[in-house]
Amino acid sequence: MPDLSPLYGLLAQLLPFDCLQARFMQQALAGLLLLAPMTAAMGILVVNFRMSFFADAISHSAFAGVALGLLLALDPDWTMPAFGLLVGLGIMLMQRTSSLSSDTVIGVFFSAMVAFGLAIVSRDRSLARDLQRFLYGDILTISDGQILALMGLFAVLMTFQACCYNQLLYIGLNPTLARAHRVRVAVLQYLFAGLLALIVMFAVQAVGVLLVTALLIVPAAAARNFARSAGAMFWWTVGISVSSAVAGLLLSAQDWARTATGATIILVACGWFALSMAAAFRRRERLI
């Protein structure tokens, strides 16, 4: 495995805070700097595609993935994303082949995955203690292996976004018209669902099942209030997501705070959203 110590040392030099001198804090910062831009980029499409419920269903499948890994004596950090990927592709397949509405399909998968996870946990009560860190999230426990996996996922996602971003926006506006213009709608939808599932699973480790949807939605919602074009919205979302992640990590480590890192990140993002609403309200007043 490559030695990531030079990367951690660089981060500590760029942000010379006392709390970032610990190795686990440097690892957490590296993980967040990789994860935040990915959740930002996918969050824009989640908002445009109206897929927040889809992301929520994927995040709750984490219970089943973790419980299955623990039950089979496998590493839950890897069974969880693998299971989430299967669920995401399954939802997309059912949406495309069934006459049921998207919300109904997602609701069925959501209920099945939560029930499956709870059924496994009910067989062995000791598993419940291991599931708590995935319920609330703990980015401070991220490992070098997970950071390397995030690096690979980051490269794949940014390549996908660079090649297909405009086509994905087109599909979000009108999939039928996109198909008429020879956009490969089915392929892009499956790729999007698979990548989103993987990113959600990694985000669960950072902020927990309860807050992972907020990590996708809140920065994009705030950016929509600030931006006046699709390109500006992308960069606003990335800026808000990254700044919220870094600020949330630093604030949660302060002696006067000592709050959960994931919750603090979301609170900072919600602060950005409040500022964006004030800016949008002021802009509306000027137009009137």
Keywords, separated by commas or semicolons:
288 residues; mainly alpha; 12 helices; globular
Alpha carbon gap, first and last residue: 60 Å
The amount of helix comes to over 70%
- Indicate the low-confidence ranges by residue numbers: none
Mean pLDDT reading = 85
Helix- and strand-based class? mainly alpha
Report the sheet with the most strands, covering strand number, pairing sense and barrel closure: none
Please write the string of helix (H) and strand (E) elements.
Answer: HHHHHHHHHHHH
Query: Based on CA inertia axes, which overall geometry fits?
Result: globular
Strand percentage lies at under 5%
Please report the total strand number as a whole number.
0
How many separate helices?
A: 12
- CA radius of gyration: 19 Å
Characterize the structure shown.
- The chain has 288 residues and is an all-alpha fold.
- It is 82% helix and 0% strand.
- The protein has 12 helices and no strands.
- The protein has helices spanning 5-14, 23-49, 52-71, 76-97, 102-123, 127-136, 144-173, 175-180, 185-207, 212-226, 230-252, 261-287.
What would you say about this model in short?
The chain is mostly helical and 288 residues long. The chain has twelve helices and no strands. The N and C termini lie far apart (60 Å).
Helix and strand arrangement:
Layout: H1 5-14, H2 23-49, H3 52-71, H4 76-97, H5 102-123, H6 127-136, H7 144-173, H8 175-180, H9 185-207, H10 212-226, H11 230-252, H12 261-287
